[in-house]
Amino acid sequence: MNEFALIERFFRRAPRDAAVRLGIGDDAAIVAPRPGYEIALSVDMLVEGRHFLAGTDPERLGHKALAVNLSDMAAMGATPRFALLAGALPASDAAWLDAFMRGFRALAERHATELVGGDTTRGPRNLCVTIVGEVPAGAAITRGGARPGDDVYVSGSLGDAALALAALDGRTTLDRDALDDARERLERPLPRVELGVRLRGVATAAIDVSDGLVGDLGHVIERSGAGAAIDVAALPTSRALAAKLHGSERALALQCALAGGDDYELCFCAPPDARATIARLASALVLPLTRIGAITTERALVVRDENGAPLRALPRGFDHFAP
Ligand code: ADP
Ligand code: MG
CA 104, CA 89: separation in Å to the nearest integer? Predict the structure, then answer.
């Protein structure tokens, strides 16, 4: 199949969203912005051997390529609307593309996000998704709005994606069910889009936990010109990870919970008078929203152990160019 046949077969569809005036097939897509809204833009690249292993299930990869971008929209409180997909593929492999697009489209449909363009080229496998979202003017939730005294929350649970990687690398062992659950978190992260939207006007700052809590909360406090103190005892973790946290694999478990990437939960801040609102939101979304600490004035991140003593060395988050 040549490039244009691939585009016809796998990417071009009649637009469903009336805001898409012109979809795939021209030199650019044309979309109609909603009056009173601002546009949120983000792009994320997944590189084989770097972000995923060669041989990763293509359907899961299609899901994940979009999920990591939807997660960025969630972290801004933006509603995702449109996506562009640039792919380098080693070969024109119809079975692979079919599965990839199945994963991509299933998630896109769940979040009413429409594929409006992209680029297709031969090369080492690399998937790059650009996402376009919208947010009422002035309502985006940035990293920079946290204030001393705010509570710090995380959604869902932390560390399972990193735990799955550790198990797959042979650095730890998990029983079958725990491995399946953790692997699901690694390969099929669920972006917290609905949460992000509902946090507009409630959260003072937010970030998605893609590189590990310590690093990502570190970005929030740096941008906000503040500090934070959080408690290991408060961190929401799966049962499998909690067991390791209290056993002989504590170091690994701390690393997963504090610095494990790929969880795609939201870490957000809100003043204490929002506690009841956030509790109601957690019930409405059937999603745990756990208070893990508070924003402080001293410009540092303090992580307290179960006895309230600060951890001396904090595990580091992921950095592609770390020395
Ligand atoms: P151009 O030469 O202008 O870059 P292309 O031939 O690359 O155009 O693409 C033709 C149309 O197909 C464009 O509308 C483009 O957005 C779309 N397209 C190409 N590759 C993809 C892809 N991987 N996913 C979605 N749309 C794609
Ligand atoms: Mg092109």
Answer: 16
